[in-house]
Amino acid sequence: MRKAQSEPAGEYPGEVATVRMSRRSVIRASGGGALALGLGGATITGAAVPAASAATRKAACTVPQPPHLPSGFWKTFTSRYISVGDGLMLHAVTGGDGPPLLLVHGWPETWYAWRLVMPALAQDFQVIAVDQRGIGLSDKPASGYDTGTLARDLIAVMDALGHKQFAVVGHDTGMPIAYALAADYRDRVERLAVAEAVIPGVTPSPPLFLPTAKDEQLFHLAFNKLPTMNEQLIRGREDIYFGYEFAIHAGTSPLPDYVVRYYVEVLATQPDALRGSFGWYRELDATTAQNAQRAAQSLTQPVLGIGGTEGNADGPANTMKLAASNVQTLVIPDCAHWVPEQAPQALLAGLAAFLAPYRQGSAAALLR
After folding, report:
1. Dihedral angle at the C-alpha atoms of 169, 170, 171, 172, nearest 10 degrees?
2. Catalytic residue set
């Protein structure tokens, strides 16, 4: 697995640009279930599906363009919409060569969280980085944010792309989503790597009264569940709330200002973005009940639990040991919560070792 490319300062100079969609930037071809679109000036082909929903097309016109991507990013990757049924369109960025690898982002991020590891991963895998339901350029329905439904969305994505078996990496809220995917579709997920989170219904809940430092890091779990007041308080102040969240979980290595600004702009520029962002939290009761049932049968796939020394350390692996029988641990030094962005090289090294049997097995199967 090759090294990740760095973020060149001149890739998108100045302020973050706005994506401009035209008839020529949405290109159709024959068959399948994906609709490609143009970002970053790329010429992209895709497979034909029903036209993207009006809400999704409008979102593509207003969401800021991802800044400072690795050099040549759009020569490898394609930005596309994928139909997952019931009229729902999800946005994904795909590219690379090899067995499929699904990347599941966390909150309050988008597929962009994986940008620093995607080019290196694409040397060995077909990489699929999806904006979850309610996030980024994906549609934002009023319901369907429990992990069972979110896992079903991702299965529909992989079906549309023609991938029967695949490996999964999930970070933050992507960890419980990826766990649901591996537990509900055990014959589909061959290996599972998860980072920097817990699993509601499997991990014991923390006490109500915590030390102040822990309160500062965990208060969002309850706040984000509120039915309306959180949106009312945050709307127009997205930079304050989400800026705080990115900072409090960054440890000693804060994310670059342009990265935080991009995520904030994504959340501030769409009418339903806040609702979609909080959807996962508002369905925690349903997800917790689902996970209690899932944990009754341990996962048998190999699992890698990843944490940073300034974050959850061995906590993700210890959580997965409550739900899986074959768990490895990776603790990354000098890294806090935002693992793919704070420690891309260390993450790539860990994933290379963990995914090697999957990659080699897939290559051997092709030769038979």
Report:
1. -170
2. 172, 281, 337
